[in-house]
Amino acid sequence: MSETHETKPVEEIWTKIRNPDFEHLRTKYPEIIGQYFTDNNEDDRNTNSSLTNATSGSSDIYNQDEQSMEPGSRFVFSKQSNYVLTELLAKEYLGLDLLLDRTYLCPRLGNRMAYIIWVHVLLERPNLQSESRGVVRGLDVGTGASCVYPLIATSLYENWHMLGTDLSKDSIQHARKQLDRNPRLAERVVIKQCERKSDGFFFFTNSTEGSDENDDWKDLDFVVCNPPFYESPEELTEARQQKQGEASTELQARDHELYTDGGEYEFVKSLIDQSFTHHKQQQNHLRRSCWYTAMINKKSNLSDLIKHIKLVHTASAANYVVHDLDTGSRTQRWTLGWNWGWCRAPYAASHSVTLKNVNPDPVQLIVPVTPPTPSAATVASGANRDDNTPALLDILIQKLEKELEQLYYISLDLLPPLLGTSNKTHASGKAWILEVKGDVWSRAYRRRQLKRQKTGDNAQEDSSEAVETILRIELLGNADGGEAGPKLQVDWIYGREYKVFESFTTMIKRKLEAA
Q: Which fold has domain 109-198+217-235+252-350?
């Protein structure tokens, strides 16, 4: 019996799905998939299919640049084989029993799983241990006939519960059939049909079904959405023609899966507006507010959607994230997320590598620390200002704690490394969580305080003081082969004003380097 999906790390499962081992699948499931293999020399030009070579447009489905196959044998992609392969990969690596309707879109498991993994990273905040999440509740807007996002999410993460909504009655019926085939997940997945697109489509408050269960889903942790990308068949045709290499298989889908008024921009813009209404109705504290997300197909839509988020948010540091989705193929996709509270995303989930012009303010700053010239006593103890000896690090730790003692902070044992950081030595052996209300270390703050004392007006607050700022501080060593010497890492965990985060990092670096 093969290793179950539950015993494999999530990243390993994802790698196997995005780079299918075709020889393994053919050996294990010859009756199901064997008919879709052919000799490399066979003339396939007269069939509605494509061999999986590096120039095949079917690489939008899975990564076929390198197939582990016997010499002379290749997997042939076609409308039918795409569905069969998806069903087998879901079975083999996720333990899911799917029977996909061949008249609906064939879900690309690789990019859908990448989306779910990114959301998981987005929700991670190991720094605030007192606010562990327990049950995580997510909404899939437009779950579709395959119900693939709820099924992937709950198969990967045991504490996740998913609600899938859709306008299409037919899609809902098919989604429920998928759920019936996977009874082990049925207790953690709910499927609901919604009414009009303009009234309750996203947040199901006006569901066509009973509302007794709706209260359980008011406090969402996240929303995922894979919207229809196009406004018309003409736009789809133009997009496919612009791709490198003509698509090799006909796209099979229902119209409502592909087209929507105004295309993906108007769809996601409406989601942004409705999410703000939903946020105001939530019972959760702002420190555990919902992350709303959407997959984006058209790069040019990102900047306009971010402008709309900032318009609604009216904050100097609007809380949004952009991420490059690793689809495992040449197809580019991005995910856009926004949060109407002040929980900041982990660094690993917060920024795009390829689209730096649309990135939000950074949530992590790592700066080198140049220690002061050591005293004679320090030299005698073995410390060298150019390396990471314990004596030198002890000096920096003492200086750091002395500065933090003048502020309100909580000293903790070393927390787990933040997601997305490289394997650096955690030089201090512990991290600090600092919570302040404003830039209390600055001259500007002191001037504001003096003014309040003179006028007796304590009601006036600077915008930087309206919301507390929570930072995580840590000293890093040099295990990653980078620039020599210790480094200061500060992560923005919670807060409204980026300038407070940046100001603190600059101040504490200066203090550490002072003689």
A: Rossmann fold (3.40.50)
